[in-house]
Write a structure and sequence with these properties.
Layout lengths: L13 H5 E2 L4 E2 L10 H6 L1 H5 L7 H11 L6 H16 L6 E3 L4 E3 L12 H5 L3 E3 L28 H12 L3 H13 L1 E5 L2 H23 L5 H14 E3 L5 H5 L2 E4 L4 E4 H5 L1
Parallel strand pairs: 5-6, 6-7
Antiparallel strand pairs: 1-2, 3-4, 8-9
Helix pairs in contact: 7-8, 7-9, 8-10, 9-10
């Protein structure tokens, strides 16, 4: 499995993928220049290369300079299981941990009394300093680069998509539910390149789930809707700089209006 499909195949959608709603411009590189469509098309491998492919000395520099952490999928799974365990009131809902791996639960997910699958997919989840967003979408292990099949994925979005696959009774209900799931997950990242990878991972996750479930590729209209949500919900921010936090504008999807970061999360 290729980690990312040819970037030219989504050229028309790249403006949505790159847009930063708070600044009303594109997301930025470390030198504060904008990441443009032309820049990506000129050197696509520069912007779609996952971090596990970086040289080891480059990783060490980034860890020291930017406090970047390359979290393996098994660790993401442990922490995501803790979150779900609290909500479901039981352990091993989606999988059982096993020696830095996991064994997926193949049975349909059962929900506790008073809680529904619709409640679960609408739960708000935020990944701070998200990097490539491995806690949200586990398309591949961010340390080893090993691809992860859809049935074995452990991200918070992946779990919501599994629940939708198991419960949605029609194509329209599936699409509506998928939009709700995407509107419920958030993440921020300082590095523009990392943020682009995170957005690509969520975008390609949708294509992969849709294609597997319906045995065809999604139409451009639904892809545009998903990308609009992604561009709002995964944003560029320095989580340490208070001025940066105060300037962030996000979409409150429940009220369908633009709000500040503090209104949604503080």
């Amino acid at each position: 499995m290729a980690i990312f499909s040819s970037i030219t195949s989504i050229e028309k959608l790249l403006p949505l993928l790159l847009f930063d709603h708070s600044r009303q411009s594109n997301i930025l590189l470390d030198d504060n220049t904008e990441i443009t469509v032309q820049l990506i098309l000129k050197s696509p491998e520069t912007f779609t290369r996952p971090r596990y492919l970086y040289p080891s000395d480059n990783k060490k520099i980034r860890c020291k300079k930017n406090a970047e952490v390359f979290t393996p999928s098994w660790m993401c799974n442990i922490q995501n299981n803790l979150i779900d365990g609290q909500w479901f009131g039981r352990k091993n809902v989606f999988n059982k941990e096993s020696q830095k791996k996991w064994i997926s639960n193949k049975d349909k997910i059962a929900f506790p009394k008073g809680k529904s699958w619709q409640d679960y997919i609408a739960l708000k989840r935020l990944e701070i300093c998200c990097g490539e967003a491995p806690y949200l979408a586990s398309r591949y292990d961010s340390v080893t680069g090993q691809p992860i099949s859809i049935s074995e994925r452990i991200g918070l979005l992946d779990r919501k998509m599994r629940v939708i696959n198991e419960n949605a009774n029609s194509k329209s209900e599936w699409e509506k539910s998928a939009l709700i799931a995407y509107k419920s997950i958030y993440g921020y990242e300082k590095s523009g390149k990392n943020l682009l990878l995170a957005r690509l991972n969520l975008f390609y996750s949708f294509i992969e789930y849709y294609s597997e479930h319906f045995n065809k590729t999604p139409r451009e209209t639904i892809l545009s809707k998903i990308l609009d949500v992604i561009s709002w919900n995964l944003w560029q921010m320095d989580g340490i700089n208070n001025d940066s936090i105060k300037s962030i504008k996000l979409m409150d999807w429940d009220k369908n209006k633009v709000v500040g970061f503090d209104s949604l999360f503080l």
